[in-house]
Amino acid sequence: MAGPRAREISLFDPRILRRAAQDSVRKLSPRAMAKNPVMFVVEVGSVLTTALWLRDVVAPPAGAGSAWFGGAVALWLWVTVLFANFAEAIAEGRGKAQADTLRSMRRETRARRVRGSDVEVVAASELRKGDVVIVEAGDLIPGDGEVIAGAASVDESAVTGESAPVIRESGGDRSAVTGGTRVLSDRLTIRIGADPGESFLERMISLVEGASRQKTPNELALGILLAGLTLVFLLACVTLVPLAAYTGVALSVTVTAALLVCLIPTTIGGLLSAIGIAGMDRLLRKNVLAMSGRAIEASGDVDTLLLDKTGTITIGNREAGELIPSAGVAIEELALASFSSSAADETPEGRSVVALVRARHGRGIPAQVPPDAKLVPFTAHTRMSGCDVGGRALRKGAVDAVAKHVLALGGALPADVLAAAERIGDAGGTPLAVCDGARVLGIVHLRDIVKLGIAERLARFRAMGIRTVMITGDNPRTAATIAREAGVDDFLAEATPERKMELIREEQAKGKLVAMTGDGTNDAPALAQADVGMAMNSGTQAAKEAANMIDLDSDPTKLLEVVEIGKQLLMTRGSLTTFSISNDVAKYFAILPALFMGVYPEIAPLNVMGLASPQSAILSAVIFNALVIVALIPLALRGVRYRPIGAAALLRRSLLIYGVGGVVAPFVGIKGIDVLVAALGFA
Amino acid sequence: MTAVGWLQILAFAAVIFAVTKPLGSYLFRVLEGERRPLERLFGPLERALYAVGGVDPRREQTWLQYAGALLAFSCFGLLVTYAVLRLQAALPLNQQRFGGLSPHLAWNTAVSFSTNTNWQSYGGESTLSYFSQMAALAWHNFTSAAAGIAVAIAMARGFTRSVPEGGARTIGCFWADTIRAIVYLLLPLSGIVALGMLATGVIQNFSPYLEVTTLEGAKQVLGMGPVASQEAIKQLGTNGGGFFNANAAHPFENPTPLSNFASLVLIFAIPAALTHTYGRMARDARQGWALFAAMALLFFAGVSVAYWAEARGNPAFAGLAVEPGAGNWEGKESRFGIAASALYATVTTGASCGAVNSMHDSFTALGGLVPLFDIQLGEVVFGGVGAGLYGMLVYVVIAVFLAGLMVGRTPEYLGKKIEAREMKLASLYILLFPLLILGFAAWSAAAPYGVSSLANAGPHGLAEILYAYSSAAGNNGSAFAGLAADTPWWNTTLGIAMLAGRFLMIVPALAIAGAMVGKKVVPESLGTFPTHGALFGALLTGVVVVVGALTFFPALALGPIVEHFLAEAGKLY
């Protein structure tokens, strides 16, 4: 792992904490607070109680006792606001640290822009979408784009962390380049794909910094519920004053404000934005860039996942697994012919034939092809490769191509070879025929190798309630075999880009959310149509532009982690909301008896916690309310753990921990604080 | 508490459980069936009403049109009733020569009956002519109940219908729903029940009031009138407005334990059955039973506390020369007893009926807390006809939202996503209740014209204020007594609370239906949590209690709860 990848940041990184502490004071500005109605109410309460305390200190009303209580309540209300700001600032700080890492990829470089026939040197930041630049060996690529001419090896370790250089060339699926990576050899002509500030990297930077963070749909809905609850409690507390006055209880503004702040959902209100930012941050640490928070949230809702067979379920390349000679042909002859005909084939498949022959039929195989051999490379026209050696024309290729070849030479495909080829196809493999002139020697069985661990990953998707569909160009029989072996729920065989789009549309018409990964240009329309489209960083610019996420590691199974992060986001919000509301039960039992005990000492039994004094009770509840925000910051940043145990079991678990736990915890906490407050002599 | 007492409560619960499925299925076929049951019998009247109103029952309405029709219909009824009450002196069937009602009393009464509240600032036998009772009020007893059923069904359609892409986002036809509910359900059932009521001794006549000489030789005037026909729909439609001032405690309205039991069953029958109708509409009866279970749980909790508190009696009597263990008999009819009175109080407030067979004001502090809190939960403990179901469905939206987040998925209910718009409407719905109840109560408690109507001071007086506005906003209509409500301030503000509590809650409920109806239905997967199981029932119950408790606990703590502890300490109000 080289390069400035997103790094693990300690929860207690002192620099971030210091910066967050400063930011939390800066965030007290009412304009910033107004975005969060829950905390805004707390701030208004803080201002009111402070003003009253100042009045009590400067000009104590007749008969007023010591002003310490009003001061203490005011202080802790301020602390509540500061803690909430601190939570948000810490999340932003961690995001900023990540953003700095990302930004280091966007070093200010010079770019050579082509204008007509001239080439001018400009700053990379001046490049616009559609500009064409020239990059030579040793240069940094100035921005995301597509290679329109040339081929070069590029060091992309800055983005992917992978140190081996990769080939980028015009046309095909290896044409996309990322800004900040370095050209090692040759020269590329690149069309820039995004305006400044619009590239994935830059969008992600502003997302993790929290600058351009827009509320996601669920966050919006939750915000409305929280604002509604805040209004309900505001009504309950404000009307309590005249209602209490009627029964002879005079409530001061200070205690009413304390009650209100304890009741409104400050825990979730204070942590809500931190949760959202932390989600981005977690995603980035997985080396995934997202276009928007909405995309992450949507990934938690995914119902159907389309997976390309090649590269996702099977390792990209097929591997030769077996040689099957035709009747009357010795296995040694087939082995030698296979070896010779594959020597010119530099594809992984060709190399795997050589490896197989060496490993299993090594006797009698020369170290190299004889120097007089004439290598015949693979062409799209013949669909065969091979070599002419010692007067023999050895060829290897797809069965139908070889059949055509031998037919032209007056030969024929023997029945047993055809049968073997069909058997292999049924079993999910690919047969290659080998011939010497018009004589067919036999079959090489190429096998799809299912990736290690893919079955477990697919099982995990199933446990989450996500249906997986394998997409492949293979015929249905081959597809079915691989699908069974890998454990996908369904497959789409003989897939074309159109069929793929159709499938996505069908699923979406059923109300399902579809996720897919892709890297090729022909994936682009489907990536755009899918609700969650994750492009591989190694893919084309078109694919990246159509997607709403990019995986820098180009690992399609990364979607699993993305889905979990999406779910965690919602779960953390839901759990903390439940916790926040459940807390109110204990707070009522702390504060209400304290408010009314002066006039109605008979309600002492309602003081179930046996709190030392009314002042201590109110203060303890306020302090608990503030501390719980800080205590939950780590949970908000880390997220509630998702377990694929089925929704009902998950709900039961969450209700038990955050619902029942939320009722019980404050009874313990408030009592503990009360004991301390009393011990310090404040009661 | 006695075994006989509990037996009455359990027998009642068993009967309600037994009628839920058949009555719910019948309602389903009436309102959603291709062909209605007994069409031969009721069809002609149904079609005649369509012809009179120029209604095409097949013309479906969007939520806005539906709400518009409902508002126009209710507004029309309200104005006619207001006119009848004001002009009472000039209208027929006025045996006792009652004059017209004062403007604020006529307003309060017209609002009260058109909102299915049936709050009565007047005494029936001393204020209203037979014509006013039969024409102005009975009209609303039928139509407001039918409108409630219509809204509930419309909302259920919003959740359960799947509209094809580009299809009309309609939720039914208000006129057809209302007319069918009346013709196929309320009218025939009321007719049968009225006959049964007659058999138990409820009166039905147009005689002038009787003047009788009692055994002690005193003169007494006995109110007369067509009571049985009013009584049936009063309970069946969860209206609750008594013919007489004493309501169901009056021997001519509720003469025997049998009529009492029948009344209780009638109050809960339709609200309970509607949960099953809903399950049928959702094509999964368990969805309906989950709502039923949540309602039943809340009901049992309430009736247990009320019965316990009443059977235990007033703690202040401990040590006095009162038979220990007798329980609290103040304000109760000896022919019903403590269990049936506590049960009646829980039922009439759980459903937004508001008929009473005992005086809730005379209950112990905790016994009186139950009816009050039942109303404040939003009238969803089976609730008013229709109102209970649509109120509960709003709570379902909130419960599903929380649960959905907790399992890490955009919340879905019956396959439809709950999003920001629904949360906005649901928040509006739950916000309105405290706004009306606590807002008006606080104002009344602070204003001299509010306080002057109260018979009791301190916590008990506060409970009376809270009860009045809760009853009005919840469209319950029962009174805590002890409050002289026939003043301009109380009549007017209670009228506003009733109107808002009905229509400002129906509109967001229908808007939710309108927002939900067009949504795509996502098939269930392992990732969606089931909304038909015990877990969801418990969560739903929890949400109802927590929202209600958190909202009203401070006010209740100052009222009945403080009162309870004071009574324990021997102080009474």
Provide structural commentary:
- The complex is a heterodimer of chains A (683) and B (573).
- Chain A has 683 residues and is an alpha+beta fold.
- Chain A has 23 helices and 22 strands.
- In chain A, strand 1 and strand 2 (118-123) form a beta hairpin.
- Chain A starts with 13 loop residues before the first helix and ends with a helix.
- Chain B has a domain at 386-568.
- Chain B has helices at 3-32, 39-53, 63-86, 103-114, 124-127, 130-160, 174-200, 227-236, 257-281, 285-312, 337-350, 365-376, 387-406, 420-446, 448-451, 458-473, 488-517, 534-568; strands at 210-213, 219-222, 412-413, 416-417.
- In chain B, the strands form two sheets. A two-stranded antiparallel ribbon of chain B has the order 1-2. In chain B, strands 3-4 form a two-stranded antiparallel ribbon.
- In chain B, helix 3 (63-86) runs antiparallel to helix 4 (103-114).
- Chain B is globular and about 75 Å long.
- Chain B starts with a helix and ends in a 5-residue tail after the last helix.
- At the A-B interface, helix 7, helix 15, helix 20 and helix 23 of A face helix 13, helix 14, helix 16 and helix 18 of B.
